[in-house]
Amino acid sequence: MSLDLGHSRGYIQNISSGKSLPSVEGLFEICDYFEITPAQFFDDGIADPALISEAVRGLRKLKDSDKLLILNHINRLSED
C-alpha cells in the first residue's frame, strides 16, 4: 500500500505503529485507496467501510423499484 501511494515501504507501517501521522493530504490518499470518505475512516461504528461504500455504489446504479426491493430484504434480514 505504501508503494501504491507513492511513499517509502515503511510509510504505512510507521502510521500503523503510531510512529508518525499522515498529512491531511496523506489521509485523503489513504481514504481514496480504500474508496471511503474521511468520515467513514473515523467512524468506528462501521465494521467494513469499504464494503459499505461498494454496496452504495452498486445501489446508485439501480432503479428505485430495485432499491426498494433490496431495502425490504435488508429490513427482513435485520429483524430481531
Would you tell me the structural class of the helices and strands?
mainly alpha
- Please report the distance between the alpha carbons of the first and last residues: 39 Å
The overall number of domains is 2
**What fraction of the residues are assigned to beta strands by DSSP?**
under 5%
Helix content range of the residues, please? Answer: 55-70%
In total, the number of strands is: 0
Shape: elongated
Give the low-confidence spans.
Answer: none
User: Averaged pLDDT, please?
Assistant: 90
The Cα radius of gyration reads 17 Å
Most strands sheet = none
Q: Which H/E pattern describes the elements?
A: HHHHH
Q: Helix tally?
A: 5
How would you describe this protein?
The structure is a single chain. With 80 residues, this protein is mostly helical. The chain has two domains: 1-34, no CATH class; 46-80. It contains five helices and no strands. The radius of gyration is 17 Å and the shape is elongated.
Summarize this structure briefly.
The chain has 80 residues and is mainly α. The protein has five helices and no strands. It has helices at residues 11-17, 24-34, 38-42, 49-60, 64-77.
How would you summarize the topology of this molecule?
Elements: H1 11-17, H2 24-34, H3 38-42, H4 49-60, H5 64-77
Which labels suit this protein?
80 residues, mainly alpha, 5 helices, 0% strand
